[in-house]
């Protein structure tokens, strides 16, 4: 990878949300709910009935540009952690990963960590978009997720 060494390839944001981990995890693990709180304004819709149940699951998502992505779940712990590798349908993932980690803090509060890791990204055509996925973008998703989780 011929990337500027000063550009971080693993970006993380976190915040405390006034909702239980189970509630928040349901919003993340059900792809049909993700466009509602996506801070990248990149997700248009996902078919109902794709709730993630374990590693190896694949869910599809339509992006705002009309492209469809297949997302292979590579980490999963119910209520605590989920991560996936997106790819074009029928193709191998190019190596970028989205991860969510939840830590219950008690009394209906949860620390949520959101990570975008493109350290293994092999498709140079995606580098500009990867660089644009900053901590602020991740924080926007966390803030929107908090709004939904705390209000519903």
From TrEMBL:
Protein's name in the database: Polyketide cyclase
Organism name: Prauserella flavalba
Lineage, highest ranks first: Bacteria, Bacillati, Actinomycetota, Actinomycetes, Pseudonocardiales
Pfam families with a match to the protein in the record: Polyketide_cyc2
SUPFAM superfamilies: Bet v1-like
